[in-house]
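Is fe (ii) ion placement plausible here? Inputs below.
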Amino acid sequence: MTRPHIEFIQAQAVGWIKLNDESARPGAEAKPLSHDADSKAVTVILRYPAGWSLSQEHHVDSDEEFYVLSGALTINDMTYEEGDYAFLPAGFPRTTMATSDGADVMTFFEGAHKRVAGPAPDSLYSKDKLVERVQSKVVAWGGATDPKVASAGVKYLALRKDSDTGDTTWLLDIDETGMTGEVNRLETHPVVEEVFLLSGEFHMPMGVLTKGAYFWRPPGIPHGPVGTNIGALGLFRCKGGPLTTEWSEETHPVQWDAPYAPILPEAVANSLLSDYDAAQPY
Ligand SMILES: [Fe+2]
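Reply from A.M.:
I modeled the complex. Tokens:
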């Protein structure tokens, strides 16, 4: 399972693709941010138009994880509103999906994500992994767990940890006091770190990440330092095991206004860079 290093793109610069009748979500639109050409896993913003519905007893053949960016989406009897999160394992039974006013949903599929009519075989559906809903705007948040980033200005909300792989998903909310240092250490993780910035800013050596920024960083790459003066709210995932961090001995100055100089696969770079300044709200 490999995906190219993408660090970083603004989702606003990525176009929408209308999904066809064979797809998992016919009639919705998709904005793919990264994908694995082998496994067909993808990180994608799905846009369900107002009045969209899918009435069919079915399941999806891969895990689906999502976070509602705006609007509301109902799956079976459960309604997901802005800030709500779910992990629906492969084979999760569905009878209806619908939205009245539309919804933009950050979505992670872990495989080919084919829509399959009827219930799944028992062997496919790992019910113990189901996270049916976490309402991030309602539940209590904790403090950050890494002592190097734990401070009064950093809050952490665990969304999921896979009992087999250690893969973890969480939200980090850094307020305007939480990461203002002029110097910091570099960090390295033994796992993929994937981030979508929901609000605020991160200042990094490859530029200033604003709302809608996305990166997928393979394991073992030293990165940072990171700073923010206005705070940041991010959706984080690590893939390939739980997140651990090795910090550099030496410190580096935070680059507060570095020009946009992303690390991108060539095909992405060619299609994105020319559009970057034309950022629109997603
Ligand atoms: Fe990191």
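Short version: The two ends are 29 Å apart (CA to CA).
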